[in-house]
Specification:
Layout (H helix, E strand, L loop, with lengths): L15 H8 L4 E6 L6 H14 L4 E5 H5 L10 H20 L3 E5 L5 H10 L5 E7 L2 H7 L4 H7 L20 E4 L5 H14 L5
Parallel strand pairs: 1-3, 1-4, 2-3, 4-5
C-alpha cells in the first residue's frame, strides 16, 4: 500500500536519544512469541514488574488486550493475523521512539510477520524472545480452554492444531517455560538486557 502524497513526516526537536538519556536506558521491543499457553503473558507481567523495580520505563502490549480495542475488527485468518502483527509493530515502534522498553505478548506464528516488525525498527531495537514450550505441555495447561475448543471444532485456525506455528530461527533469547520456573525465565531475560546495555 502506497502512502498518500500529501502526508509528510514531522520531526520533533526532542530525539529518541534524548528520551533515552532522560530515562537512563535504551528503548527496545521485547517480542515474545510462542504457542498459546506457553506463558507469554505471565512472563511479560512478571518481567515488567522486575524492570519497573529496576527503574525501567516499560509498557506491555498483550494479544488479548489489544484485540479489545485497536484490533477488535480482526479475526484469525492468516491475513488478519498479519495485519494484527503489523499494527502492533507500528505501535511498538512509536513506543520505542518514546524511549520505552516495550513487552509484546503475541503468538505471532509466522516468521515473515515477525521479520517485518524487526525491519521497521532500528538495529538492536527488536529482541525476539522465543517462549519455548511443547504443544503437549501447552495443551495440558490450556488456561483459557482454547485447545479443548479447537480439538472439538468450536474454534478454527487455531495455532498448533489446524494452523501453523513457525519457530524463530535465531531469536535473541530462548526461555523454556516447560523446564524453568517463572523466576528463572525472568532472570535470564533481565541478564540479557543488562549484558547488552539495555538496562542498568
Amino acid at each position: 500500500m502506497s502512502e498518500p502524497s500529501n502526508i509528510v513526516w514531522h520531526n520533533s526537536i526532542v530525539t529518541k536519544e534524548d528520551r533515552g538519556k532522560l530515562n537512563n536506558h535504551k528503548g527496545a521491543v521485547l517480542w515474545f512469541t510462542g504457542l498459546s499457553g506457553s506463558g507469554k503473558s505471565t512472563l511479560t507481567v512478571a518481567l515488567e514488574k522486575e524492570l519497573y523495580d529496576l527503574g525501567t520505563h516499560t509498557y506491555r502490549l498483550d494479544g488479548d488486550n489489544v484485540r479489545h480495542g485497536l484490533n477488535r475488527n480482526l479475526g484469525f485468518s492468516p491475513e488478519d493475523r498479519a495485519e494484527n502483527i503489523r499494527r502492533i509493530g507500528e505501535v511498538s515502534k512509536l513506543m520505542v521512539d518514546a524511549g520505552l522498553v516495550t513487552l509484546t505478548a503475541f503468538i505471532s506464528p509466522y516468521r515473515k510477520d515477525r521479520d517485518k516488525v524487526r525491519a521497521i525498527l532500528d538495529e538492536h531495537e527488536f529482541i525476539e524472545v522465543y517462549v519455548k514450550c511443547s504443544l503437549e505441555a501447552c495443551e495440558e495447561r490450556d488456561p483459557k480452554g482454547l485447545y479443548k475448543k479447537a480439538r472439538s471444532g468450536e474454534i478454527s485456525n487455531f495455532t498448533g492444531i489446524d494452523a501453523p506455528y513457525e519457530e524463530p530461527e535465531s531469536p535473541e533469547v530462548i526461555v523454556n517455560t516447560e523446564q524453568l520456573s517463572l523466576e528463572k525465565c525472568v532472570g535470564e531475560i533481565v541478564d540479557y538486557l543488562k549484558e547488552n546495555g539495555y538496562v542498568k
